[in-house]
Amino acid sequence: MKWFLSILSAVLLLQPSGLRAGETPPCTLHITHTDALLMADPDGRIICVKNGSKGLIPASTIKVLTALTAIKRLGPSYRFRTEFYTDPFQNLKVKGYGDPLLTSEIIHDLAGSIGDRINRFRSLILDNTYFVPHLNIPGCGRSTNPYDAPVGALCANFNTAFFRRDRKGDVVSSEMQTPMIPFVRKRVRSLGLKGGRHTLVHDSREAALYFGELLLHFLNKRGVKTGGSISLGPVGPDDRLIYTYESAFTLETVIQKMLKSSSNFMANQIFISLGARTYGPPGTLAKGVSAVMDYARAGLHLKDLTIVEGSGISRENRISANGMLTVLKGFRPYRDLLRRKDALLYKTGSLKEIRTEVGYVESRPSRPYYFVVFFNRPGSPMNATIRCVKKTVIDYETGR
Questions:
Q1: Same domain assignment for residues 222 and 137
Q2: Chain-centre distance of CA 234, in angstroms?
């Protein structure tokens, strides 16, 4: 009997929606008390809703709220910066401000810019005080999986390394642009990892040292003479600013990359930076929470939500389908920053036994429909539900 009901349910989900007055689209068929579904027309009028006010775990779809808050608070053209100083003792100092896109290519170019200004220094000193140390993101563990990468004021390559073993078993880089530095080789060997992309650091201090060793490598290749030592320390009042790097990417581009890759690291870099920019440094988790919650309440008039971090990795985050609709209305001018598949602009989320998807269906240009689907249980028919959502929009548009 169960197999028959399952087949019948799948068939019904793919049937015409029949959106005549008083009828309910079959998209709600598998929405249980643990789930929610909402659809709205381009004017925000509800087409169908089930459990719309129930607070549920949004997983990575909460990144849309983080992105919207950042755009509204910082502006779409905002650029992260990184500062370089020399001190009275001929040391080079680097102060980070949370740039999530300091990749090997960027660090290589930074070494060139520094090499145009100085030809030698004694020690490299890294200032990561813009964020408080030991920031623990709720939901993050200490695995080597990239989704557990820590945040920090000064980071490189998303706090990950991509490597493999050669025929001799030696650790080599899997990226032409990234050298195999001793920092990474030592960590890989100590952890016994075979290859792939992994995070090898678990706090902001380690993250800054990883950045520093990469920078030192490129500076040496550039011909800059150095003493070779790397340490942590703050920029002081007697230090002289010699170069400010403004990110090659606007905030809008950073957000697009974050949403399309669903990077937890990038989302929480933005989240903590928001707190520091809004309430002053150092950046803390509490300040990031306040920045997003304050915007949600004052800018979106949302009250019934819980945010503990900005990426969706925590199961403590809660928002209702009605609340997410409000977020989507605010994000509508920036919806092209989301992934697109045909007429669907969307953000997905997944945790163990959690699947979510929110976004827009563009049946006509500039007239997007809104949808929110939250499954907070195992075995959810997300793909069939999304097909039904798109079918419902078509039927609604054509009046069938």
A1: yes
A2: 28
